[in-house]
């Protein structure tokens, strides 16, 4: 096996920096060299490997399929070196400074607020700033160290580390179910007021077990686009409306667990929901040179959220809280 020479390391580092920066000029500023030096190094890599890694135009760069594969391999190689050094350099290092975190308001309120006292007690020299909204954010432009996201991460230039999972539940208040009746199958939802996310978003589609003409569940999944008299981009707003008896909402387990335990909400159609779980990701710019503040916070969340794997709702408790 060939050793990783200094020149080879420089190539890997430069290539990954170009991909993450989006241009030779932006990468050159980070690497403290000229754009032409970056371009020549990429040309040298492509000639040595015998493949084209990047499609170049006067205005943009795009990875080829070989480039995508090599990009992931280069990241893994650089991560291994960084982790090896980090395990020695940060073994006893105190954590201090500012950590800026982006996530949704309800995830911060329902989960992070409960965990922060313990985390900050262990890391008293650390300061945290939370940017709380559900919109996509440019981590570099907003100077954000870490984003905590539920669901798919669509930006291929970011690193997404899964730290937990959650289920999606259909919920309504006991009062609403007394008035409107309890749906027995997904087909019954067309007769209910469904409090949904705004149209054309992936959360506005409710996947549930398919059923045949006789109403018997089959092995497939049907994706329902249901509507009611209110739609929103805020799951917290939809939850409040559901608690007020306005209709049925599809919400994450971590979000509604306290309301289910309190009896403010009940789950419905539990047997019709798919078993798939939605990932919760810690998202950051790169594993290379990842600061210790991010590493420590992500590790803490990974451990604590794993301990609360179902957000306090075991399968048996979920059964007791559901109306079938």
Automatic annotation (TrEMBL):
Domain HTH lysR-type: residue ranges: 7-64
Tagged with keyword Ion transport: no
Pfam families listed in its UniProt record: HTH_1 (PF00126), LysR_substrate (PF03466)
PROSITE patterns from the UniProt entry: HTH_LYSR
InterPro entries from the UniProt entry: LysR-type_TF_proteobact-type, LysR_HTH_N, LysR_subst-bd, WH-like_DNA-bd_sf, WH_DNA-bd_sf
Keyword annotations from UniProtKB, A to Z: DNA-binding, Plasmid, Transcription, Transcription regulation
Top-level lineage group: Bacteria
GO BP term, example: DNA-templated transcription
Any one Gene Ontology molecular-function term assigned to this protein's record: DNA-binding transcription factor activity
Protein family: Belongs to the LysR transcriptional regulatory family.
Name of this protein: Transcriptional regulator LysR family
Organism per entry: Caballeronia insecticola
